[in-house]
Amino acid sequence: MEFDFDTLTNRLNTDSIRWDSFDSEKVLPLWVADMDFQSPPCVINALSKRVQEGIYGYTHSPNHFNQSIAQYLFEQYHWKVDPDWVVILPSVVSGLYTVVKQLTSGDEEVLIPSPVYHHLRLACSSANRPFQEMRLELKNGRWVLPSNELPNLITNKTKLALFCNPQNPGSTVFTRDELQEFGDFCVQHNLWICSDEIHAGLVLDENKKHIPLASISKEISENTITLMSLNKTFNFPGIGLAWAIAENPTLRKAIQIDLHQTIAPPSLLAYTATIAAIKEGEPWRQALIQYLRANRDSIYEKINSISGLSVCKMEGSYLAWIDCRNLQHQNPYQLFLDAGLATSPGSQFNQEKFIRLNFGTQKSRVDQALHIIESCT
Ligand SMILES: Cc1ncc(COP(=O)(O)O)c(C=O)c1O
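Above: the input record for the complex with pyridoxal-5'-phosphate. Below: its predicted structure, written as tokens.
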């Protein structure tokens, strides 16, 4: 393989949230969603060159940046986006909070998937908006939306639906039919949609692909703000740049509202990293996916062979959502932590009997994690 994902990287004492929050002598930390791999060489080289210039003044979005994003989205997803629909943000999370605040008011309600990345829920509570949870169901080994339940979850106050594709946690890469059904439901009920697609670049199987929800139809596109970023795929979330896509000018205006005021623009290094990844990152991304797929396969085999545990075959990203409901233990997170493995506790997603394991790491660390899990169950 042209790129090296196997050599153990040492992230101790780098102020890494994941690595510097536990005693590394005792605990293997596979929790927060960043990877233990260096970013692609093209990103490292571009950043080094920029740093060497030595002047880091106020920076505007580089010429043709929105065009590059639009072209990238067409190449990756066959999604035709007008560069004018693109709004640059420092992070996806800032976009989520702005969307909820701007697209709902008073006691208007929001629909969110559950379990889901905790900031979707927090964006609602921080804006004081009531939310209803679409509880994902396990069907044919995949976590999917409870389509039959959706009509019961909305009221005449429901104004916005948040969505996450690929889903975190659960790893579902939603199919065209599933997206069409959900998008049509939202359009029929006049719900704005905010689709968090940050994990889009990490679809693990060759026969599956990421389909942006807004690309399904003109009607869905008119109702949707899509949030994306290359932070996850190319592993530079500590630098941070994201974008929103909104065909509808009302939605575009809503997402722009706090920019350059309470929401700072991305740093100049974030532009540099993103451009390098767009232009030259594809071979690395392909190699990464193969590596992650092998990690996914070992986890799938091993976990499902352990009595009391199960996991579905992760379709996207590098987060295994492990079901411990049949394990005779009150607190699986603590059980594994005491044995030397830090995962994300299911309680972070309101599901205490699950854990989320980050497998964006070297194979030997995945093996070590599986060994720890096996030895204490
Ligand atoms: C679904 C989802 N959205 C957003 C984020 C964070 O995005 P950002 O770092 O751009 O704010 C994460 C990080 O784990 C995530 O999983």
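Notes for the reader.
Residues 42 and 276 are 6 Å apart (CA to CA).
Residues 282-305 form the longest helix (24 residues).
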